[in-house]
Amino acid sequence: MSIQELIRYCSTKSFPKDEIIVVEGEPGDEMYIILSGKVNVLLNSIDGLPIQVAQLDVGQFFGEMCLLDEGTRNATVQAVEDTTLLCIKKNNFEQVIRVQPNLVVRIINSLSTRLKKMNEEISRIQSGSAQLKCEQVVDSAARKKAHKGITGVLFPENHKSYELEASSTDEHYLFDKKVQCPVCDKNFSSKTLRSHRLNLNNVEADFRKRYEKIEPLWYMVWVCPQCFYADFYLEFGKLAESVEQKLRQRMKARKDTEPFNFSNPRHINEVFPAYYLLLDTFEACVSSPAKLAKTWLCLSWLYDDVEDQEMSDYASRQALDYYEKAYDKNVGASIAEEQRLVILLGELHLRHNSYDEARQFFLRGITRQGSDDLNQHARQRITDLKELIK
């Protein structure tokens, strides 16, 4: 495949280090070939930060599915370093393959690999190891006994004010990104993680990732300071028109409210409202239980950090309830995703002393096609349970 010849027919785009190139779930009409640099391919995680599933280098490509169907992006792609891409659009794809037929062979090989994996998943699902049923659910039970806040009902009743501030060294792991709000169209700047600088320290039993010198949870949610639309930073702006209209109606009710701003360094009493505004957005969007569960799980971890055991237990209970809904409404998750989900459900049941349920989920987490590390984790937790209930 001659890149030089392709350049005659296609445009190029450059992205600085850490820039998000495409976002999982958004529509697209381009595929990309990497001319220089590297990119990470990320999938949304059930338990917090996105999971890196691949790193692509010069000559490799992504986004080809958007040329072949009307679907949306199936992963988020982020530049690891300054990266230049060759862009092949749907409207010139036929011309490109006439010039470079070898590109078709490479795409077919890529699709063949994906189809093989899909067939394995279908076989697993038909054998009864996963339930396929898609339904969007929003449960307002978690908002009972709440007091008034920025958006009307915001914090649970026993939420408090806390004393915790981010370290000034966080700046080393962050950069300022200009963002346009899809709801009010205002521009603002938001702190964004430099993912390549994060150094993983350890992973806890409930899959919380601990990093050296920074807590990424403090920066995972972007909030528009004018209209209070909030979302996880990798998903910010991916809204259907009907959802935008609902959020604009809410914005009118808040027109006299003071703008929401993070200080620098950031304070924990600004981080908590960001997550509760995120829940508020998800309520308006009629979001999936998995998104609500992930948000409550992050909140439980943040309450752990401020040593509020009562609120941590409350948030983790909400996470458990929503993750169980997500499991019951499973949309054909991959083996890896399902294995992580059932083990996480085991951990949450264990935290709330539901030992029988915890054991059942840990047993489901042991699977021949799953990760060896997760299989070992599940076996160890079953052993721990036996010791606990002696």
Automatic annotation (TrEMBL):
Residues 1-114 form the Cyclic nucleotide-binding domain. SMART domains: cNMP. InterPro entries: cAMP-dep_PK_reg_su-like (IPR050503), cNMP-bd_CS (IPR018488), cNMP-bd_dom (IPR000595), cNMP-bd_dom_sf (IPR018490), DUF2225 (IPR018708), RmlC-like_jellyroll (IPR014710), TPR-like_helical_dom_sf (IPR011990). GO terms for cellular component: cAMP-dependent protein kinase complex; cytosol. Keywords: Coiled coil. Transmembrane segments: none annotated. Pfam families: cNMP_binding (PF00027), DUF2225 (PF09986). Residues 108-135 form a coiled coil. The keyword Transferase does not apply. The keyword Repeat does not apply. This is DUF2225 domain-containing protein.
